[in-house]
Write a structure and sequence with these properties.
Bound molecules: zinc ion
Number of strands: 6
Structural class: mainly alpha
Oligomer: single chain
Helix content: 55-70%
Number of helices: 33
Shape: globular
Strand content: under 5%
Strand order of the largest sheet: 2-1-3-4-5-6
Distance between the termini: 67 Å
Radius of gyration: 30 Å
Amino acid sequence: MPLFTIALTQTTINLCTLHERLQPLAHRSAASVHTHTRTRSNGPRSPPSNKQCFASLLNAFSKHPTQLMQIHALLLTTGLSRKNSLITSLISALLLMGHTIYPRRLFDTLHKPRTFLWNTLVRGYVKNDLCAEALTVYDRMHRAGIRPDEFTFPFVIKACAEVAGICGGPVVHAIVIKYGLAFDTIVRTELMIMYAKFGDLGAADYVFESMTDRDLISWNALITVYAQGGHVDKALALFEGMNLEGVRPDSVTLASILSACAYLGSLEVGMWIHRQIIKQGLHKNLFVDNALLDMYAKCGSMEMAGWVFDKMCQRNVVSWSTMIGGYAINGESEKALELFSCMWSEGVQPNQVTYLSVLFACSHAGLVRQGQMYFNYMSRPGSKIQPKIEHYACMVDLFGRAGYLLEAYNFITRMPIEPDSGVWGALLGACTIHQNMELGQHVADHLFSLAPKAAAYHVLMSNIYAAAGRWADVEKIRQRMKDHGVKKVAAYSSVESNGEIHVFHGGDQSHPQCVKIYEVLEELMKQLRNVGYTPRTSVVLHDVEMEEKEAVLGTHSEKLAIAFGLISLRSELPIRIMKNLRICNDCHTFSKFVSKVVGREIVMRDKNRFHHFKGGVCSCKDFW
Ligand code: ZN
Ligand code: ZN
């Protein structure tokens, strides 16, 4: 039987046997060239050459690194290791599987590799996120006098966009022009993406506008980059332009733009996109429907997510997981767990993400025993889905939030995998909620060595000390942050009004309606104090006078956002606020009071979850 047939029919072929069979062929190969040629022209169909056999073998084992390396050994013994096409296939297959060292060594043994091989190496490095190495290879290629082609530059530009500074952009652009490739559509698309990634939207627009042969791909690419970079207005303008030019967006464009809306919490725009999708008959696509579910869940509208979910003619594990996760972050844990049961009864197998959402739901509802049960079920022997570090962090959070700090600590010490900063961070968060300074200090020691530059953990520990009035320790943390160059992330809150996102920072006075906002806030404070609201000054970190503490607290970004929402949104609409960090205790209490006194629903997404404030209570039941 010819060797390539063996390889293709028996993927578990024993390569030692193969070696034995190859030996005689190898000895024969050089001597039989002439006979072989004659046989091919005159006689019956010739057996495949060694080169063909190897090509088939490389193809058959392209996803098996060990076998590929064995095939390389065979290539060496049969004298075929200098066949460029075979080596290219071998290098390419190994790079595709994430191996970089072996293929690089192989490449370095070659004499005068051609452009195609250089391109293979550059592409392989980029695909393995080794962009700096990819640029080094390009540099070597240039020095070796090899002319790059239209297949080289898309990957060189990609690498440049990742690792080169903004100045690298025009340099690579100039090289592209020098080689006469400035009008290649793929090269231009990559240039456009690179400029957009650098934030140079003017240059990206210029490249885009000067493309005469732009196609769906170039559209899509720019929309995706704009959307992922948070430039939703630009992405939307392009999307509209696409409609005007009669180019139908595909599911990738729609999913990118919806995911940008989800990221920004832009419900108005998300709903507009949804209407366009229905109008153009682009719904009933699983990918698009799942993106819609995700957008609605992350914008805090589970009613709309539920509406889309019910109408879906096809659902997969992503659809179910998105809904379960959506209910969990929106404080509807019972619905999340109910849906999880439905998922089982419909025979859909949960995945890692589903379990994470289920554990999150249990954790945020204080359902400790139920969470433990799901975790144990997931980690039972023989289960296909074993818990990952994120699931362990969720369990620590589950115990910690509910006040079982010791259980949480013991759980960490028994973990079969090394706990990371996420796991210890969950426990430090619990120590902050339950004001356990002793354990907090111990946990902070772990965290400061694991993640010395993470501002969030320093702030948590500082909060514990501040709440206990230990200002000397607060100062020590502040000094530590300074010494280690730890920068605090500036808190901000945003509100969407008439399709525009308004962003507020603490004490912000830059908004055009600033005077009115502060007037409303002051009036609001008076009203709230009359019904029993007192600012919780313990959350203010600095050891300053009470009046000053109240002033700092009073202008937290979410309070400014609420005041702006009150003056800018129609009174029947809820005020939807997105915040980049966790909401502080005082703003939480303040929002509850506002929802009661003004009779206005406030929906707030913080770093971890949603808070739906209505009639003086929050959906998180003060458990966040
Ligand atoms: Zn606050
Ligand atoms: Zn809440």
